Request: fold
Amino acid sequence: MKTLVILADGEFPTHPQPLGQLLSADKVVCCDGAAEALINHGIIPDAIVGDMDSLPENLKAKYASIIHKDTCQETNDLTKAFRYALELKPSKIVILGASGLREDHTIGNISLLSMYSQMSDVAVEMWTNTGVFYPVGEDKTYNVAKGSQVSVFALDNHVRVKSEGLKYPLDDVIFDSWWKGTLNEADSQIIKLSFVSEGRVLLFIKY
Reply:
């Protein structure tokens, strides 16, 4: 299996880019709170994962064969779905519907990306209706359209990063606040991030 999509219970994909990911996925794993919206859009998931507190009783009965109940209170439904997705051994996991609606959920879900990327060798990305978040923990190169709007968020304030292909280089940035490294722009078709010191970074590229 190449690409598995996890649909979370945030803003449903409407932009052509994330919607295309949803429609072309090899498998779709749905958080229980998002299942009703997905089914109403005419798509039946391969699995519904969560504590099932958000799934209507009629859907619980109808789709009992694909429900994977997880009542653990130490993790949210997105993490439960991610752990289940890893068991299916995909090459890449694309998370959709993890932003919008509630800002606290959005921040929490985005912050989990780095943890997810460290849980396995599977590539993981989060696609929203405005762009894509990539967790970065090692030197990486990305192909982009020149002029793309780019932001870099450091989850560790000790991290130091050098950049190529950005209008405003990151070489001297001290990431002691979340806004540092944001609102940048690609001035070439390739962006390269190189780590001077270890740490966790999130790269956001707007469509």
About this structure: The helical segments are 16-24, 32-40, 57-62, 77-87, 103-119. The mean pLDDT is 94. DSSP finds five helices and 13 strands in the chain. The radius of gyration is 18 Å.
